[in-house]
Structure formats: C-alpha cells, structure tokens
Amino acid sequence: MNSRKWVGLFLKTLLIGGIIGLFTSFFVKASLYTDFLNPFDFIELTGLIIYFTGLGLLFSIISQTGFFVYLFINQFGLSLFRTFWPTVQVLLIAFVVFDLIYFPYNAVGGDVSLFWFIIMAAAILGYGWIIAKIKARETNQRAFIPALFLMVVMTAIEWVPGLRTSGTDYAWLMIVTLLACNTYQLLVLHRITNSDSIGKEKINSKISSNKA
C-alpha cells in the first residue's frame, strides 16, 4: 500500500474519530450543552464543540497507533508461535475480558454492582465478535481470531487512559470512539490492499500481452 493510501486512511479515521467523539458527547455530556443552550451562549457552545471534537481526534490517533502496533504484533506472533498463535490470541482475549471485569470492579470498591462490569465486558466482546465475523466473511475464516483480538485486546489496552479518569463520562467517550475507529480500520484495510493487488495484476497482464 502506497503512502497516499496510508495518508488517506489516517485522515478518514481521524475524521471518524472527531465526528464520533462529538456525537457521543451529546449523550454523555448532555448537561453541559443544556447549560449553554438555556440561555444560549454561542461562544461557550462553540468552545464545547471544538473541545469534544478535539478529544475525538485524540482518541482516533490513539486508535491508529494501536492498530499499527496490532499489525506488528500479529506478524511477530505468527513468526514466533506459528500454528499456536491463534490459541495464544484466544487465551489473551479471555484474560483481557476477565480483566475488564475484575480490575474496574475492584477500583470502585464495590460502589458499582459487579453485574454492570460483566455487561460492559460482554458488550465489548459481543461487538468485537460481530465485527470479526464480518471481517472473516469478507476475507477468510482465518481472519476471525486476529480481528477479535484487535477489537477486544487492543481496544482494551488503548482504553486504559480512559479507565483511569475519575467518573465514567470520559471513559464512555473514549471507548465508543475507539471501537468506531478500530472497526473502520479493520474493515477497510483488506479493501485497500485488495485494490492494490488488482491494480498490480492488471499491470502485469498488460505487460504480458504487450510482450506477446
């Protein structure tokens, strides 16, 4: 994939992060918008929109960094563990899902029911499972586990700064944006690389026909 397509992927993912971050803020930070809408304060409202859009852009950059790390880890894991790499990924997924329940629950000291942390982890796993199935259907079945690994393990790692903030508002802002950006990158990557392969095949066929 050439640099022009990498830049295009970066900018599009950045745009998605900004839009999703702003859109999510309408729900998780609705009280802030209400304060500036009644009475209407254009300057403060504009500043709020810029702030949450900027947060979305920042979360998008974190997502893209994690995505490139994932590509490296996947290749390294294949070379190191070979046929055992899918099994290792499944074990890591199970470990991270457990961590998403255990550590946040301990952090709140029992103030929040364990049930909600189980729901949260199940929702991330379920969403990742759906996206991984789509990836596998559009490429091949071997892509399912690596895709699930990205959507669960890498997203959870990227989410660590959000989990350390006080309150849950920014954690929600971050996880929604991360999932959206990781989903886009995962599902668009094979389309970009396939278009390159098709282009190379057309060039090779033209060269072959000219030689003939």
Topology:
Elements lengths: L2 H26 L1 H8 L4 H40 L3 H23 L6 H25 L5 H15 L1 H4 L5 H43 L1
Helix pairs in contact: 1-3, 1-8, 2-3, 3-6, 3-8, 4-5, 4-6, 5-6, 6-8
How would you describe the overall organization of this protein?
This is KinB signaling pathway activation protein. It comes from Virgibacillus subterraneus. InterPro entries: KinB-signalling_activ. This protein is mainly α and 212 residues long. Helix content is 87%, strand content 0%. It has eight helices and no strands. The chain has helices at residues 3-28, 30-37, 42-81, 85-107, 114-138, 144-158, 160-163, 169-211. The protein is globular. It starts with a helix and ends with a helix. Residues 197-212 have low confidence and may be disordered.
In sequence order, what are the helices and strands, one letter per element? Answer: HHHHHHHH
Largest sheet report: none
**What is the mean pLDDT?**
88
Radius of gyration: 21 Å
| Helix proportion | over 70%
Structural class: mainly alpha
| Total number of helices | 8
- The low-confidence parts are 197-212
Rounded to the nearest angstrom, the distance between the terminal CA atoms is 29 Å
- Could you tell me the number of beta strands? 0
Q: Strand portion, in percent? A: under 5%
Shape: globular
Pfam families: KbaA (PF14089)
Transmembrane segments: 7-28, 48-72, 84-102, 114-132, 144-164, 170-189
Protein name: KinB signaling pathway activation protein
Keywords: Membrane, Transmembrane, Transmembrane helix
